[in-house]
């Protein structure tokens, strides 16, 4: 209901941390992580290869399950938090792992199911079901690179994907401040 108001409520954010995070993939895991990290005061940029953010929230739900105007309003709320979206951007074509590492203190991969060729472009190791990560932190073999959601293992439930994104965002946040 709040989204229907002229000026929807924007949750408070902590002061700017001076840290920046790139999230590759604007699906449920990436969006949940972006929300948490922005509220912690980090500068967050979300890149996605599609022309609209939402990932499986947009492609695997019906209009009755998740009206597109509600999804678009929620995405606008994320922009009000200061999250920047870069759409129609593809890793390996427009972005490189090296460039991301130079431009951001941390990179979070939430790209959905991934092929061996794509993991090579990312500079991370492929495990049996996706990107190989530390199961407790989401940390990959890449320098300051984390992964979550279906990029790590198939996730069929949207709420689980969002939960994975939120959990790894906490680990990214702790990493940015050197908290074990």
Summarize the structure.
This protein has six helices and five strands, in the order βαβααβαβαβα.
Give the number of helices: 6
The biggest sheet, with number of strands, parallel, antiparallel or mixed sense and barrel status, is: 5 strands, parallel
Low-confidence residue ranges: none
Write down the overall mean pLDDT: 91
Query: What's the Cα radius of gyration?
Result: 15 Å
Outline the structure in words.
- With 180 residues, this protein is of the alpha/beta class.
- Helix content is 34%, strand content 12%.
- It is built from six helices and five strands, in the order E-H-E-H-H-E-H-E-H-E-H.
- It has helices at residues 28-39, 56-59, 68-80, 97-103, 116-122, 158-176; strands spanning 20-24, 43-48, 84-87, 106-109, 145-147.
- Strands 3-2-1-4-5 form a five-stranded parallel beta sheet, sandwiched between helices.
- Helix 1 (28-39) links the parallel strand 1 and strand 2 (43-48).
- Helix 1 runs parallel beside helix 6 (158-176).
- It is globular.
Secondary structure elements and pairings:
Layout: E1 20-24, H1 28-39, E2 43-48, H2 56-59, H3 68-80, E3 84-87, H4 97-103, E4 106-109, H5 116-122, E5 145-147, H6 158-176
Parallel strand pairs: 1-2, 1-4, 2-3, 4-5
């Amino acid at each position: 209901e709040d989204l229907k108001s002229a000026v929807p409520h924007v949750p408070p954010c902590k002061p700017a941390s001076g840290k920046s995070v790139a999230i590759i993939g604007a699906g449920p895991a990436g969006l949940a992580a972006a929300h948490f990290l922005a509220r912690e005061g980090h500068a967050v940029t979300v890149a996605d290869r599609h022309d609209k953010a939402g990932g499986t929230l947009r492609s695997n739900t019906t209009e009755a399950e998740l009206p597109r105007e509600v999804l678009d309003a929620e995405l606008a709320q994320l922009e009000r938090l200061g999250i920047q979206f870069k759409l129609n951007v593809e890793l390996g074509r427009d972005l490189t792992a090296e460039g991301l590492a130079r431009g951001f203190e941390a990179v979070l991969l939430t790209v959905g199911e991934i092929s061996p060729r794509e993991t090579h472009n990312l500079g991370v190791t492929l495990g049996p079901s996706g990107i190989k990560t530390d199961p407790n932190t989401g940390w990959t073999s890449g320098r300051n690179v984390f992964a979550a959601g279906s990029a790590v293992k198939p996730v069929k439930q949207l709420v689980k994907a969002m939960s994975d994104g939120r959990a790894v965002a906490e680990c990214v946040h702790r990493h940015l401040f050197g908290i074990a």
